[in-house]
Design a protein that fits this description.
heterodimer, A: mainly beta, 28 strands, globular, B: about 950 residues, 36 helices, 5 strands
Chain lengths: ~325, ~950
């Protein structure tokens, strides 16, 4: 529907603001698309987690139960449950429909920076500033984690999961990739504290952003540097980065209130999208479409490509 | 005959039921067999003649625990939901209804219970009740009970009656009784003070009947003692106002159950008014009912002679029957009468003491001294210090007290144990008065030390000020007396010197340390010239002065720091005996290498560390991934035990770890740190620099495993090598780095020296330090063999013998992990740094040729670089093969390593070295077997 023309078009960058969600939950710490990109989660500093339809701007549900600000959230593959972690050191598993807390995993010694479901939503991986990643089992009732990955020497800032890998960025300047299939741990030294890591959509590369205002694209298998992207400002905050829906562009938040787009191959700055005053704290890219969510302050903006026209019913 | 017959027929008595006459042609009935002779109850059920409640033993269903339905309880009721409904089963729940019928063992018919039946069946209890009622605050409250008493009598009561007993009589054989004479009516209560006894003549007349000789009497009824507890606040023996007396005026006699025996108290109500003629009514009672009295008796004019006894009376016969519960008048009649004369009335239930109370002994007050003045004045209190001893003495003398012996404490300073000591008591074991005595010896010492430390601090402050004063007054330190005096004062506190003795502030200068210790010893002895004595006389005056200062400062400093520290730290709760710690076997390499690599954007092998990592089984299951190490039990990174305080843990430090003085280290520090040496230079940095394009990290680990041991024990060597490194780093030329390296190796001492130093370590352990010398074709062959062998043997999985364990089992990662770990342990004790996970293979391979290395040394022609490269190749192949053994290996991994191999290796050696493992194995097999 989105691309009716048979002729392949060049990639379009989302630069048209189509919606602004005034979240009303304090600062929005993170904004995350769900698995199919129809909904999004916003993590507020007022201890709530909200589920939205970002294109229509409707609030669907508010999940409250955290004891402190929510720092990250993720949705399961079947949209049936959510997980979130926050400053209360707890990882919470939510039931989407009822809004109830299903499980509350306690065990981290510090704030939980990042949470992820695994592919089948049977395990929640949470990274905390206590320099450990804990794998919580959603199936059993046991309160302690299945495994604790405590190889990091400093806080974990980012965790991403593929079907058999766990990618973790740590403030100690290393990106660790735990390969469950091979039973090996690959540790890539970047030097500067890592703020965000992510896999490319083809699973061959990892994108790493660090506090030296640089994004690096590393080959997953060898750790070699494939590209470096600079121009934005990221020296203080844990900012998100990601790749566009077809791995054509590298997208990163910046502390100067813009979102930067680089061409992945050339490494040239493609677009600096001014989002708003202040730091762009978080962003999330739609899994299939050129649609971007950015969080600045207490509001979330939804961006689409220029040619986008809001469709009436389909959303 | 017929008549006779008929008569006799009529006379016959027939018993039982006649059998029915047999009909014609019918065979006589068979008797009912035994098994058919059953008895059934009215409901048709078989009747059991035995049962749990009828004397027999037949439990449950045909003597089983089951029921007709089977061996299941009739109904299960969850006690969780209806906890409250749970009822306790009684015996009735297991009874048949026949048992509960009128003639069963537990009849349920309505019967009169004892509460209603027992009121009158027991005369004795009745009497007691009456007694209680009479003494109750509202007398006569039991009247209603008496009126509505049911008529049932107990069986014992009826039996007694049938035996001739009458109500009111006692039980027992009838007795003869003497006529009573002059018995005063005991029923008369005397209120107020001492009335003359025997004031009731009327009653005398009544009792004075003629009693024939042959008449016997029933024994007197026994009145039970009233054990009703006193639950009111009335005085003892208080009785409320008798309504009879109050209402009918002249009833002078309380009805007294004790009074008449069978005759007296039989009819309570009927006696009202009988004693109307009595004189003494209630006169004398505290509260009058005068309005109701018919006449006022002149109570003072009733003195008659008949009120007095004229003869001594003896006891009533048969009174011995009564025992201690006897009514009062039988027990202490005369005594009470006698006593009443001067003591007064004895309360009910009390008797006069038989023994007179021993009178209290009184003592006269002490005689006052002659010059006693009843005025107190306070003397000034002067604390006994050294200055005012005289004053105190004078004061105490003036006070008339002897001067307390300074050795002994005053009375108030003594504690119990000291007093006991003074008194010569044997000390009580175990129960000491001071908490301190419960403390262990160690703790006591600690407390004492702390106390001394605080004392010392004060002393030191004082001393310091003194010293400052002294030094300011005399700036020239050549006058030693002042300084030493002050220091002496500071240190004379006691244990400072002893404790300072195990602190060696001048360890780097043994001579000086010796002098310092001497100084401390002198100080301890309290010699004033301690400093002067121990100083080296050959030194100049300035030096001596400086050293004096140093010593004194060191002594002070140590003590103070010791005291402050000791007050802050406690002893470890757990003994830290195990000097081994668990550390990950593979640690991320030095960041310094990587930092430079990152700076140069040399991402890839330089910045990557690869570890063996064991995911949890459950995690694998949840990720739908097969467990990469199915036989492994460990989770996470493999861990090994390491010496906690091993020298080799600090090998990255530039100086040797043996020098304890940090001062020395700081002095050494700047010496060999080059201009851009913010990062610690090391030998392997060189090699990294020189082969940047190569797989340097692997090479680094290899190089580390080789050159580790020599760097440990000889710091000059290390420094020297590091200087080489510095050089090579500065110009970054590959060739020079190689030169310097070979040069450094050339200057190394021989292997025997290392062996001598590490005497305890076996050959096998030191092999890692030697393997770099053993490079040759033979070497390669040997390792190949070992490798081949091991791969074969791992298949057979036979890992028992010790000799085997020393062989390359270690390359097998998971299954034989304990052995591997042990072995690594041993190597850790020697080797400088843990190799990466793929490294042990190589090291193991190179163990075999160690014995021939001396020969091989000479044959060394090729450059170091070539050897290394070859080894690297081997290692890669091995790694590859190793991976191939694992089930879940990633196919592209091996190919990538192959590709890197080919890309990495220079052109010259590629043809010879870059072989497939199969090819290599084939070649190795063809080689002659040289050593095992």
């Amino acid at each position: 529907m989105a691309f009716p023309e048979p002729k392949p078009r060049g990639p379009e960058l989302p630069q048209k603001r189509v919606k602004t969600l005034d979240c009303g939950q304090g600062a929005v710490r993170a904004v995350r698309f769900n698995v199919d990109g129809n909904y999004c989660l916003t993590c507020g500093s007022d201890k709530t987690l909200k589920l939205w339809n970002p294109l229509r701007g409707t609030l669907l549900r508010t999940y409250s139960g955290h004891g402190y600000e929510v720092l990250d959230a993720a949705g399961s593959f079947d949209n049936s449950s959510l997980c979130s972690g926050g400053g209360d050191k707890a990882v919470v598993l939510w039931d989407v429909a009822s809004g109830q807390v299903v499980r509350k995993f306690r065990g981290h010694a510090g704030k939980v920076n990042t949470v992820q479901f695994n592919e089948e939503a049977t395990v929640i991986l949470s990274g905390s500033i206590d320099s450990s990643i804990r794998c919580w089992d959603c199936r059993s009732r046991r309160p302690e984690p299945v495994q604790t990955l405590d190889e990091a020497r400093d806080g974990i800032s980012s965790v991403k999961v593929s079907d058999h890998e766990i990618l973790a960025g740590s403030v100690d300047g290393r990106v660790r990739r735990y390969d469950l299939r091979m039973g090996q741990l690959f540790s890539d030294y970047v030097g500067s504290p890592i703020t965000c890591t992510c896999f490319s959509r083809d699973g061959q590369c990892t994108l790493v952003s660090s506090l030296d205002s640089t994004l690096r694209l590393l080959d997953k298998d060898t750790g070699e540097l494939l590209g470096e992207y600079t121009g934005h400002k990221n020296q203080e905050y844990k900012l998100d980065c990601c790749l566009s829906e077809r791995d054509t562009h590298v997208v990163s938040c910046s502390e100067d209130g813009k979102v930067y787009f680089w061409d992945l191959v050339e490494g040239a700055l493609a677009l600096a999208l001014p989002v708003g005053p202040g730091v762009v704290q978080s962003l999330s890219y739609h899994p299939q479409e050129p649609c971007l969510l950015t969080a600045v302050g207490g509001s979330v903006h939804c961006w689409r490509e220029e040619a986008y026209e809001a469709e009436g019913g389909t959303g | 005959m017929a008549a006779l017959d008929s008569d006799s027929e009529e006379d016959l008595v027939s018993y039982g039921t006649g059998l029915e006459p047999l009909e014609e042609g019918e065979r006589p009935k068979k008797p009912i067999p035994l098994q058919d002779q059953t008895v059934r109850d009215e409901k048709g059920r078989y009747k059991r003649f035995h049962g749990a409640f009828s004397g027999g033993f037949s439990a449950g269903y045909f003597n089983t625990v089951g029921s007709k339905e089977g061996w299941t309880p009739s109904s299960f009721v969850s006690s969780r939901q209806n906890r409250a409904d749970k009822s306790v089963l009684g015996p009735e729940d297991f009874m048949d209804e026949e048992d509960l019928s009128e003639f069963g063992i537990a009849p349920k018919a309505i019967v009169t219970t004892d509460d209603f039946a027992s009121k009158t069946k027991d005369r004795i209890r009745e009497k007691a009740r009456q007694l209680a009622a009479a003494t109750a605050p509202i007398p006569g409250a039991t009247l209603l009970d008496d009126l509505i008493t049911p008529a049932k009598l107990s069986i014992g009561f009826e039996l007694l009656r049938k035996m001739g007993w009458k109500e009111g009589q006692g039980i027992g054989p009838r007795v003869k009784r003497r006529p009573r004479r002059q018995k005063p009516d005991p029923g008369v209560k005397i209120y107020g003070c001492a009335l003359p006894p025997g004031g009731s003549e009327g009653s005398e007349d009544e009792d004075d009947d003629y009693v024939p000789e042959n008449v016997t009497f029933a024994p007197k009824d026994i009145t039970p003692v009233d054990f009703t507890p006193k639950d009111n606040v009335h005085g003892l023996a208080y009785k409320g106002l008798d309504p009879h007396q109050a209402l009918f005026g002249t009833a002078g006699e309380h009805f007294n159950l004790f009074s008449g025996g069978p005759e007296g108290a039989s009819d309570l109500l009927g006696e009202i008014g009988v004693n109307k003629g009595r004189k003494l009514g209630i006169s004398g009672q505290a509260f009058g009912v005068g309005a109701l009295e018919e006449e006022d008796d002149d109570i003072y004019a009733t003195e008659t002679l008949s009120k007095y006894d004229t003869i001594l009376k003896d006891e009533e016969p048969g009174d011995g029957l009564y025992g201690w519960t006897a009514p009062r008048q039988y027990k202490s009649q005369k005594e009470s009468e006698k006593d009443l004369r001067y003591i007064g009335k004895i309360l009910d239930g009390f008797s006069l003491a038989s023994k007179p109370l021993s009178s209290k002994k009184t003592y006269p007050p002490p005689e006052l001294p002659r010059d006693y003045r009843p005025v107190h004045y306070f003397r000034p209190v002067v604390a006994a210090t050294s200055e005012n001893t005289h004053l105190v003495q004078v004061l105490s003398e003036s006070a008339g007290k002897p001067m307390p012996d300074p050795g002994t404490h005053s009375r108030h300073q003594l504690n119990a144990s000291k007093r006991a000591e003074l008194l010569g008591e044997t000390p009580i074991q175990g129960s000491s008065t001071s908490v301190l005595e419960f403390l262990s010896q160690k703790d006591k010492e600690r407390i004492r030390e702390m106390k001394q430390a605080t004392d010392l601090k004060a002393a030191q402050l004082k001393a310091r000020s003194l010293a400052q004063k002294a030094s300011s007054s005399r700036p020239q330190p050549s006058s030693p007396d002042v300084g030493s005096c002050s220091w002496h004062m500071a240190l004379s506190g006691g244990t400072a010197a002893t404790r300072a003795s195990n602190f060696k502030p001048f360890a780097k200068d043994p001579e000086k340390q010796k002098r310092y210790e001497e100084f401390l010893v002198h100080m301890k002895r309290g010699q004033k010239d301690a400093l002067e004595r121990c100083l080296d006389p050959s030194m100049t005056e300035w030096e001596r002065g400086r050293e004096r200062d140093e010593f004194a400062r060191a002594a002070l400093l140590y003590v103070s720091s010791h005291s402050t520290l000791s007050s802050r730290f406690t002893h470890a709760k757990e003994e830290d005996d195990s000097d081994q710690v668990e550390v990950p076997r593979d640690q991320e390499n030095d960041v310094n290498d990587k930092q430079s690599a990152v700076r140069m954007k040399m991402f890839g092998k330089l910045t990557r560390d690869t570890f063996e990592w064991h995911p949890d089984k459950l995690l694998c299951k949840r990720f739908n991934v097969p467990d990469p190490y199915p036989d492994s039990t460990l989770v996470g990174l493999p861990r090994v035990k390491r010496d906690k305080y091993s020298v080799f843990n600090f090998l990255t430090l530039p100086e040797t770890a043996s020098s304890p003085a940090t001062q020395a280290a700081s002095e050494k520090g700047p010496q060999h740190q080059g201009p851009d040496k913010s990062r610690k230079p090391s030998r392997w940095d060189t090699s990294k620099q020189e082969k940047k394009e190569d797989s340097i990290s692997e090479f680094l680990s290899l190089a580390r495993s080789k050159v580790g041991p020599p760097t440990q024990e000889s710091s000059p060597l290390v420094i020297k090598e590091e200087e080489h490194v510095t050089e090579s780093l500065s110009d970054k030329s590959v060739s020079k780095g190689v030169d310097s390296q070979t040069e450094g190796e050339g200057s190394r001492p021989s292997m025997d020296l290392f062996k001598a130093i590490f005497a305890s370590s076996s050959d096998e352990k030191s092999s890692s330090s030697e393997d770099e010398q053993g490079d040759s074709e033979d070497d390669q062959a040997g390792t190949g063999e070992a490798d081949f062998k091991s791969s074969q043997e791992t298949d057979s999985a036979e890992t028992s013998s010790v000799a085997r364990a020393s062989e390359p089992v270690a390359q097998e990662p998971a299954p034989s992990f304990p052995i591997q770990k042990m072995q690594i342990d041993e190597r850790e004790a020697f080797g400088p740094r843990l190799p990466p996970v793929f490294c042990p293979n190589v090291r193991q391979k190179l163990e075999a040729p160690q014995k021939e290395k001396h020969k091989k040394n000479k044959e060394k022609h090729k450059t170091k670089k070539e050897h290394r490269r070859r080894k690297e190749k081997k290692k890669k192949h091995r790694k590859h093969k190793h991976k191939g053994k694992q089930k879940n290996k990633k196919p592209e991994k091996s190919s990538s390593s192959e590709s890197t191999d080919s890309s990495d290796s220079p052109s010259g050696e590629e043809g010879t070295v870059d072989l497939s493992p199969q090819e290599l194995l084939r070649r190795l097999k063809s080689l002659p077997l040289r050593r095992q």
